[in-house]
Design goal:
This protein is mainly β. Helices cover about 5% and strands about 50% of the residues. The protein has one helix at about 90-100, and strands at about 10-20, 40-55, 55-60, 65-70, 80-85, 115-125, 130, 135-140, 145-150, 160, 175-185, 190-195, 195-205.
Length: about 210
């Protein structure tokens, strides 16, 4: 994942809905730069682009998923990651998604690149993404599935965390959620948990 790729000079922006699930207890301590609750963290991160473009390539209504494993504190790096791009996208669209969500195109996600020790693979797959009220779900056939729902706070309001020091989605409060299921099996990584941590929020990434 070379952050010095000359494509980062292209103008781009993507906006949409993000959510994640991991094996940590609610609420995941990794966002406060503390060690994960089980000593390691296996996480699924999903993005649905509502509106976006990379130069003149439209990226509306496309999905991306990242699977990540951190052997200890996430700040210490050595992550193993696998990137999944929406099979519905054309070749130029998938190329643009790959550049943006690998950090090659710059922007916020480029800050995560130094933490990655091993890129296990990049695959084009069907990605089913759903958002309904306080629930978020994602499925990649034969690879991954996750379903989370926001926790109820005082008066039934969402529980949110703002200005946390470590996040893949800066600028938005994270809604704290819990998984009803989260499983993943590919590239030698595995996750199979329920009643564990989840977050969701809007996201905006752009060049610069």
């Amino acid at each position: 994942m070379n952050t010095h790729d000359n494509t980062r000079t292209n103008q781009w922006r993507v906006d949409g809905s993000y959510f994640e699930a991991c094996n940590c207890t609610v609420a995941c301590p990794c966002i406060f730069t503390s060690p994960p609750t089980e000593g390691h963290c296996t996480a699924l991160l999903a993005w649905h682009i509502e509106k976006g473009a990379y130069a003149d390539v439209a990226l509306d209504d496309l999905n991306v998923v990242l699977a990540a494993f951190a052997p200890g504190n996430m700040q210490e790096g050595k992550w193993q990651v696998a990137l999944y791009l929406d099979k519905r996208g054309t070749v130029p669209q998938q190329d643009a998604l790959g550049k943006i969500f690998s950090g090659q195109a710059g922007g916020h996600l480029a800050n995560l690149v130094p933490l990655i020790g091993d890129v296990l693979g990049v695959r084009s797959v069907p990605i089913d993404f759903h958002e309904e009220g306080r629930r978020r779900s994602m499925q990649i056939p034969d690879v991954a599935m996750m379903d989370i729902e926001a926790l109820s706070g005082q008066g039934g309001a969402d529980v949110t965390i703002s200005n946390h020091p470590f996040t893949p989605v800066p600028g938005f409060p994270a809604v704290v959620a819990k998984s009803s299921r989260a499983n993943y099996q590919d590239f030698g990584l595995s996750l199979d948990v329920s009643e564990k941590n989840g977050f969701y929020s809007p996201f905006t990434y752009q060049a610069g």
